Amino acid sequence: MNRLILIKYGELTTKKGNRKLFINTLYNNILEKLNGLDVIIHKDISRMYIEYDSSLEDIILKKLNQVFGIHAYSIAYKTETNLESINNTIKEVLEKYLENNQEYTFKVETKRSDKKFFMDSMECNHKFGGFILKNFSNLKVDVHNPDVLVHVEIRFDYSYIYINEYKGIGGYPVGTLGRGALMLSGGIDSPVAGYLAIKRGIKLDLVYFEAIPHTSIEARNKVIELAKKLAIFGGSMRLIVVPFTKLQENIYKYVDGNYPITIMRRMMYRIMEKLSLKFKDLAIINGESVGQVASQTLTSMNVINSVTHLPVIRPVACFDKLEIIDIAKKIDTYDISILPFEDCCTVFVPKHPVINPSIERCIEMEKSFDYESLINEIMNNLLIIKIDEHFEENKYSDVL
Ligand code: ATP
Ligand code: MG
């Protein structure tokens, strides 16, 4: 029997105008994900089919579970679209699937996209059901709650028979909703925010603000490890390392009281806007969560957000920390995030950061040093590392 993986797109099929873009993007993402494996992928308007060597099945299924835009998939058997071939394949599939002569109930569910096929779906159900009853004395029909659901998809030249259907991870194919810049720190929240943005089809650029020597190279490597985890779902991406030291030192020299964090985050947003223009990102994405720390009160968010016109997406804004941790564990970033290397925020935190900052005071304080030229200098000294899920440290030393 000709065994293959049949993929259903789900959510994206409802986006009629964009269907072609969605399917082509999903197709390319699956190709990228299965790169190096000996497979043939076909696509049509509502299904994708992967032909493969059976020894690769487990690894392919594991990888497909990391591709957004897959609604469901099945191990299906392909046959020619004629009654005899379909009947024979149903028989073979059931013989393979049913382990012994135990009694089962079943139901046939036919989908007929080839409207020229001589029977409609109902007639097919009856015809194939009758054939099964004749050939399997241990099977009985139960249309409400069957033990075994026999799917028959009649699609032009070929038809597909399968029993089990598995859920994919859903979401939209990465890239179909444009590109965004994720502020990626070494914390727990931002990788989760990135994962959720990827799930919505956003292709990410990653931005890490670094303050060497106040932060260590281990802190950067931790961010690289997190980026690799995100690349499992988001494909290869740029990690932009922002040399933030001088600007940050100026902030702590010229900004007094409880304002350094607020001003620092305004500077980060200003740089994010410049980076977004440079790399054609349509939104800033970060791991801010309402109420989590002083800079994440609504007043703080207003004051910080007011330096940019770009939309700022905060996927975990309304999540509890425990909910964020659950996702971090699921995507395997949690153990990396809790490693003890400090990033640039934690190093300079004042004892009592302001909770209700005033925008006028920020503007006043920002006049005390020439942050614009410092930002321009930063923009000329970016380090860009291309990361994919197989990224290796030794490749990275070359970039250094
Ligand atoms: P935690 O998970 O412990 O809350 P965090 O990284 O979320 O750590 P916050 O101080 O809450 O730290 O920062 C809020 C958001 O700002 C982060 O989720 C991240 O998106 C962004 N951010 C903070 N520090 C950096 C940094 N050094 N580089 C890039 N983005 C940063
Ligand atoms: Mg946080």
* Beta-strand residue fraction: 15-25%
Written as H for each helix and E for each strand, in order along the chain, the element string is EHEEHEHEHEEEEEHEHEHHEHEHHHHHEH
Q: Let me know the largest β-sheet.
A: 9 strands, mixed
**Judging from the principal axes of the Cα atoms, what is the shape?**
elongated
The class by helix and strand makeup works out as: alpha/beta
| Beginning-to-end CA distance, first to last residue | 52 Å
Spatial extent as radius of gyration = 27 Å
| Number of extended strands | 15
Features:
400 residues, alpha/beta, nine-stranded mixed beta sheet, six-stranded mixed beta sheet, 15 strands, 22% strand, binds adenosine-5'-triphosphate, binds magnesium ion
Provide structural commentary.
It is a single chain. The chain has helices spanning 19-33, 57-64, 83-97, 121-135, 189-199, 217-234, 245-254, 260-279, 298-305, 321-330, 334-337, 344-347, 359-366, 371-379, 393-399, and strands at 2-8, 39-43, 47-52, 70-80, 104-112, 139-141, 148-155, 158-162, 166-170, 179-183, 203-210, 237-243, 284-285, 312-313, 383-387. With 400 residues, it is α/β, with parallel strands linked by helices. Strands 1, 2, 3, 4, 5, 6, 7, 8 and 9 form a 9-stranded mixed sheet that branches. Strands 14-13-10-11-12-15 form a 6-stranded mixed sheet. Helix 6 (217-234) links the parallel strand 11 (203-210) and strand 12. Helix 8 (260-279) packs across helix 9 (298-305). It is elongated. The mean pLDDT is 92. It binds adenosine-5'-triphosphate and magnesium ion. Residues 187, 189, 287, 289, 292 line the site of magnesium ion (MG).
